[in-house]
Amino acid sequence: MQEFCSLSLEECKQWMEESGEKPFRAAQIFDWVYQKGCLSFDAMTNMSKDLRAKLNSSFCFPSLKCIRTLNSEDGETIKFLWELRDQKRVESVLILSKERRTVCVSIQVGCPARCAFCASGKEGLKRNLTPAEVVEQVLHIDRFLKEKGERVSHIVFMGMGEPMENYETLVKAIQILNDPSAFHISQRRITVSTVGVVEGIRKLAQEPFKVNLVLSLHAPNQHLRKKIIPYARKYPLEEILMAMDEYAEKTGRDITYEYTLLSGLNDQREHAEELAQLLSGKQCTVNLIPYNPVEGLRLHRPEKQAIEEFRFILEDHRINTTWRYTKGKDIAAACGQLALQK
Ligand code: SF4
Question: Which residue from 92, 109, 96 is spatially nearest to 156, judged by alpha carbons?
């Protein structure tokens, strides 16, 4: 049986035609599922009994079950832990910031990138998520928000997993999130974060949609980057930056570089100087993220003064920076922490 939320509108129309039904029914079902949040074909009262029976015998949902939610003390972050059909677990984070309702989704169980500072990478990749397993993270959180008269407004692919290593699911999920019959979240409000899978960046630049792209940089040179992101060995930093430039040129989107500051490892003066040289002349923003401690990892968050000095050096070289204190420290906000807890 197929997962309904893995279907794009076009695929749903095609199924209708092949099943002897009118294609416009597809948009009606999308409205039930994504606008009304209805997850039962039997409750779709404007469909014939016959069509409902056909849908019930061909499709299933939901694919994930919420087994835990955790609210941060500041009330600005809510973490959702999901159990999948095979009992594996992933998590999503809802970030409440002014009028924004951003969902940070997972795209894999575990992650192949094995970043030194990340809980998700600790045990490597377990499996890819299906498009439905990604879309349903948003669907369930959207239903949760609707009860308060709110809707999901932004999506970031920054949860567990490397999006470019589950490319087909990424593209399908973006299509469904962006579709006016489904969530209708604009391309400008969708952000994909990668550790720098060059062929993935180049493929994404060729897609008909233009989403924001973020590179998890975390080091100013290849040598140090390989230590922080073991996966980075596969791709020379120069080639990744070139692919990012091509993406910016092709799509007109600004590029963001994320830099997690790890005390004593990548937060020194010379690292800031080298980073400024590396990004010199680029239309970009560096998002500085003070490390969020993960149990069992011997890494530390830099002092506030060190972070400010790092930022000052970049700004002095005319590099735009933002500085983000990771929200939800008290609810294990670093990605993968909750899913790894027993
Ligand atoms: S930080 Fe992101 S890319 Fe790195 S291991 Fe964690 S989930 Fe994977």
Answer: 92
Tokens of 238: 């120069």
User: For ligand 1, is residue 118 a contact (CB within 6 Å)?
Assistant: yes
In short, whether 121's Cβ falls inside 6 Å of ligand 1 is yes
91 is catalytic: yes
Residue extents of the structural domains in the chain: 2-60, 65-340
Class of domain 65-340 (CATH, top level): alpha beta
C-alpha 50/C-alpha 40 separation (Å) is: 15
Query: What's the pLDDT tens digit per position in 89-148?
Result: 999 999 999 999 999 999 999 999 989 888 777 778 999 999 999 999 999 999 999 999
113 closest CA partner among 148, 75, 161: 161
**Rounded-to-integer distance, Cα 167 and Cα 169, Å:** 5
Is 2-60 a domain of CATH 1.10.150.530? yes
